[in-house]
Design goal:
58% of the residues lie in helices and 0% in strands. The chain starts with a helix and ends with a helix.
């Protein structure tokens, strides 16, 4: 009765330990060189706020009418 849990625990422990110790180490010289970022990512971001403000803002005549009310 006690042997089965003990056997199961020892097998699991041995499996875990063997998995930890068998990791292959990668040499630094084998690491690939970093690829530079694409040119389109290096461009400045487009100004989307000003065109949006022009679309949403009220015209000059509308703003004068609202101020006079």
């Amino acid at each position: 009765m006690r042997n089965r849990p003990l056997l199961t625990c020892s097998v699991m422990l041995l499996t875990a330990l063997s998995g930890c110790t068998s990791a292959q180490h990668v040499a630094v010289s084998e690491c690939p060189a970093q690829i530079p970022a694409p040119a389109w990512m290096m461009l400045p971001a487009p100004d989307l706020l000003n065109p949006l403000n022009e679309i949403i803002s009220s015209s000059e005549s509308e703003s004068k009418q609202q101020q006079s009310k």
